[in-house]
Amino acid sequence: MAVFVKRSPYTGRRFRVSSPYGYRTDPFTGQQGEWHGGIDLVGIDSKEVVSVTRGRVLVSQWAASGRSAEWGNYVAILAESGEIVYYCHLDERYVSVGDFVKAGTVIGREGATGRVTGAHLHVEVRDRTNAQLDAAAFLGLPNAVGEAESAGSDYALQVAARCGFEQQTVDYLNAYEFSTELWRKLWLAMDGAE
Description:
There is one protein chain. The protein has helices spanning 135-139, 155-163, 167-175, 180-191, and strands at 3-4, 14-19, 22-24, 34-36, 38-43, 48-50, 55-62, 73-79, 84-88, 92-93, 100-101, 106-109, 121-126, 132-133, 146-149. By secondary structure, the protein is of the alpha+beta class. Strands 1, 2, 5, 7, 8, 9, 11, 13, 14 and 15 form a ten-stranded mixed beta sheet that branches. A three-stranded antiparallel beta sheet has the order 6-12-10, with no helix packed on it. The protein is globular, with a radius of gyration of 17 Å.
């Protein structure tokens, strides 16, 4: 069974965690104990990548050299809350430096650029001092390999994910004609913008 997430970087509902945040076995060398500073995800229903926060695009580039060359084609967004969120290994980028994005804005397409063993999205989160933050916790994901489900554009599921509602709670409220518009208003009150 999939878990609902607070912040999904995909337009589609379902995706899976292919490599969690933290120490892991290096996929290239097989050496144990390699630090993985982000979380790797693979879209199931869609490969379109969206921003998980409101903010400004700091970087939108192909990194050909240096440490970020491992990321290939990537976008970095400075969230209004202060974190910098990196979306790496993209096949395509749809935003430019300086663009303002809202949570849910399509910014690129999952790919296999940079140092990869296959197509996926590497999400990395850093604070203003460049210290890595737990990307799984930031996204509201369990830090383990497995399938997750996002709310997509369904406001009821987005509210449920944010509040920790079980699916049966959403079903119960919907049975009493809890309208899409009311779910949207709740989501807007929690998120602050569409």
